[in-house]
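[09:14] KT: can someone run the structure on this one? pasting the chain below
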Amino acid sequence: MLKANVKSTTPVTIAISDLRGQPQFRDAVADRVWRAWWREQGTPLETIASWVDDSLSESVLPLALVAHDGPVFAGTASVIESDLPDRPHYWPWVAAVWVEPQFRIQRIGHALVERAAATAFALGVETVYLCAREHLHGFYTRQGWTLIERDVGPRRLGVFTLAAPRPGVDLDIRTA
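[09:31] RB: done, C-alpha cells below
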C-alpha cells in the first residue's frame, strides 16, 4: 500500500492492482487513456475500451494496472507489446501512465511505473521501454530510466529504457 495525502489532512491508502482483479475500473481506465492520448486523433472511445478489454483476458500481455483508494480511481499504467510503431523492435513497453489530477505529486505515478516495470521483469524480460514527450523526460530519468532516442515519430517522443535489476538487487516497491 502507498500512503498519500491528497489535498486533505486525512491520509488515503492507495493500492495498485492488476485490472483483472478490479474490473470495475475498466471504464475509468479506457476513458482516461482515450482522453489523454487518443480523443484528439479521432480514435473512438470504443476502440480504446476494446484495447483495455484485451488486458482483462488471461494472456500475460497486455496488462493494465490500476491505482485506487478503495472504490476511488487514482491512476493507471500498462505493460504492452508495442507503444511506438516507429520502433517495432523494442519490446515490451510501459505505457498509458495516468494519474488523476487530485492524486498527483504523491508518487503514485512513480509507483505505477515501478510496478509495471517490475511486472515485466518478473516475466523474465531483461529490458523494458517507454516513450514520452519532452516535458516528462525528467520524471522518467529521476526513476532511473535512460533516454536512448529523441524526437522519434511525428510526436517527437523520447524513447527510454530500463534494465532489469541484477540478481540480489531489490526493487523498492511499496504497493500492494
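[09:33] KT: thanks! The helical segments are 26-38, 45-54, 108-122, 137-141.
[09:34] RB: yep, looked fine to me
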